[in-house]
Design goal:
The chain is of the alpha/beta class and 329 residues long. The protein is built from 11 helices and 11 strands. The strands form 2 sheets. A 6-stranded mixed sheet has the order 2-1-3-10-4-11, with helices on both faces. Strands 7-6-8-5-9 form a 5-stranded mixed sheet. It is globular and about 60 Å long. Residues 1-33 have low confidence and may be disordered.
Length: 329
């Protein structure tokens, strides 16, 4: 029978020990070669609409850069905590913000976050654009946008719509639609889009506008009717849904972009390198399919084009907030 070794009695030759250490230093260190280089900060809870497009492409992006990247969620204060973290990070291209059109809404509502949505950031790359779909309860006596508008005009005060909360993109999109159509429908804010849509299913609310990524579980439900999509053209994923323009509300559209921002002082060569890697990533499979399956139409913009979109969207969000009369309260 072999007696187990007592680890405190094991003897070793010091020369062998030193030799082993020297040999190890000559080998590539796995931990170092796999060390995290950069991170994408999502300023909302994990699993939400802001995180999904980042998660769809970040591995391909990292592969193009030859670096290891991770995704971190820093939620709280309506996105201000995570956004501020990036604004105050080193401008070395290693900390990026997963942003969307709502990046500007807080400022447009008159709030005073701990960052400037324009001056504190440099646009890096646009991942794509997401549209919204107007859903109604199928028991309502209208089957298209024109009939909904006519019903609302003839029955003021009888309809209500849900949203993910005051100032959310679902609120802004629906309020903009009502303003454009010249109708009044009561707004009922919920804690999230799913809760609002569930009440439309149950008949407690009559309408809701939801992101295209969120209609998959509802589109085949007989209790729901999809009336129109807010995009300029029909969705690649849901081509059977008419646009608002096709439905008679000319020139009405509402889209949200998803993209990555860096701290403002990040050098242009770093931004260009990141932009090229991200554009390559979203053009590759399976990242491209993953993005499309989320209801997002992939983009492929250079720095200047995305910067133009970024600045133009700030003006649009400010205009829409004022147009529909939203306030911070």
């Amino acid at each position: 029978m072999t007696t187990p070794l007592n680890p405190f009695e094991v003897k070793f030759d010091k020369r062998d020990f030193i030799g082993s250490l020297l040999a190890l230093t000559c080998l590539p260190t796995f931990a170092q070669s796999n060390k995290t280089v950069g991170k994408i900060v999502v300023p909302f809870a994990p699993g939400g609409a802001r995180e999904l497009p980042a998660r769809a492409m970040y591995q391909e992006m990292a592969r193009e850069l030859g670096e290891n990247w991770i995704i971190e969620s820093h939620q709280g204060a309506g996105g201000a905590i995570g956004t501020s973290l990036v604004a105050n990070s080193a401008p070395d291209g290693k900390t990026l913000l997963m942003a969307a059109s709502s990046h500007f809404v807080t400022a447009a509502l008159g709030a005073k976050p701990f960052y400037d949505p324009i001056k504190d950031f440099a646009p890096v790359a646009n991942i794509g654009a997401q549209s919204y779909v107007l859903l109604t309860n199928s028991q309502m006596p209208f089957t298209n946008v024109g009939e909904l508008i006519e019903f609302a005009r003839k029955h003021p005060g009888e309809l209500n719509y849900g949203s993910a909360g005051i100032g959310s993109s679902t609120h802004l999109a629906m309020a903009y639609f009502c303003k454009t159509a010249g109708i009044e429908i009561m707004h009922v804010p919920y804690k999230g889009t799913q809760e609002a849509t569930n009440d439309v299913l149950a008949g407690r609310a009559q309408a809701v506008i939801v992101p295209t990524a969120g209609i998959g579980v509802y589109i085949s439900d007989s209790r729901i009717r999809a009336l129109a999509i807010t995009a300029k053209k029909r969705s690649t994923l849901r081509p059977q849904i008419l646009t608002f323009h096709e439905s008679g509300l000319k020139d009405f559209f509402f889209e949200s972009w998803f993209g990555l921002l860096a701290p403002a002082a990040t050098p242009k060569p770093i931004l260009e390198r990141l932009n090229a890697a991200i554009n390559k990533a979203i053009s590759l499979e399976p990242a491209k399919s993953r993005i499309l399956n989320q209801g997002i139409e992939p983009a492929n913009m250079g720095l200047e084009e995305f910067n133009h979109l970024f600045l133009a969207d700030k003006e649009l969000m400010t205009k829409l907030v004022k147009l529909v009369g939203l306030t911070r309260d």
